[in-house]
Design a protein that fits this description.
Bacillus phage protein, alpha+beta, 3 helices, three-stranded antiparallel beta sheet
Length: about 100
């Protein structure tokens, strides 16, 4: 299991999303609707994940930080050349941390 797959599986667990990994597609699909679910690449999926888990997102000029409400600590990522990617990744990493605790 690669790092992105592990992050997605744990994030889905945290949000109580019944999803499964399709290796040939390199993404997850929601069991009920067969809709693709990949908050690492989809802004809408990442936003809904952050809302479901009551996360706070803070951007500075160089970093994005995600506070996991109801959980200790935060996750941060350097913004780099793609602030949207960094934000999605920080959200998924924070959700995966919650999923590890479940």
């Amino acid at each position: 299991m690669d790092e992105n797959q592990e992050l997605l599986v744990l994030a889905a667990k945290a949000a109580r999303i019944e999803a499964y990994w399709l290796p040939q597609e390199r993404t997850m699909f929601v069991r009920k609707t067969f809709a693709e679910w990949n908050p690492l690449v989809d802004d809408g999926d990442a936003f809904r994940l952050a809302v479901e888990l009551k996360m706070s997102v803070k951007l500075t000029d160089v970093r994005v930080s995600v506070l996991r409400r109801d959980h200790d600590g935060s996750v941060s990522e350097p913004l780099g050349d793609d602030p949207a990617f960094a934000t999605r990744r920080a959200i998924v990493r924070a959700a995966a941390d919650i999923g590890r605790d479940k």
